[in-house]
Amino acid sequence: INFLDWMKTTSAKNFFFASSSEVYGFPNIFPTPETTPLTIPDPTNPRFSYSSSKIIGETLSINFAQTFGFDYVVGRFHNVYGPKMGFEHVIPEFIRKCVKNEDFFVQGTGTESRSFCYISDAVDAMILLATHQQSKNEVFNIGTDEEIEINDIIFQLEKIHNNKINPIYKEFPNAGTKRRVPDISKIHKLGYKQKISFNEGLQKTYDWYFNYHKSI
User: Fold this and answer.
1) DSSP structure class, residue 39
2) Could you tell me the pTM of the whole model?
């Protein structure tokens, strides 16, 4: 709200709002297009406070822009990953368990799937949307259509780490959607292309986190 209030006082005429795939809640259309209704599955579950903030942010951004006469673009990022992404996401957690030889607990059954987008591809998409004339006042999914099961990540890490992984599956009561794969045909029409495959991105990410954990 502070940013949007500031927009009214400046000569800037367009802005990019970084949203998230989480706004779709538990989608039932795959790949999931931008026209899918935004939902908050359970407002009493703190898990959905993040997606709620993104839905509110999108709504405010669009309506402020329409009311005060500036342009917006909304980018819904889908599972961006890579070096320096922190330590509380599935890929860095899995890598840490490999490097430190920890018990390999996995939330869920391992059949849950996501479409992971390497950080440089996400940056390319953001720059494209921020500068393309045909992106103005539109909403775009940002990600890949390469759907990856959690078990596939484990399998690839076994090969990269060159050691057997014995996953221990456990129930997770506040789990998100079982599947997440975006329809990216809309951003494709603007010229966006994925450059880094999941296997290549996972290797790059593993190398960074491996060196980090070995250095501390």
Assistant:
1) -
2) 0.96
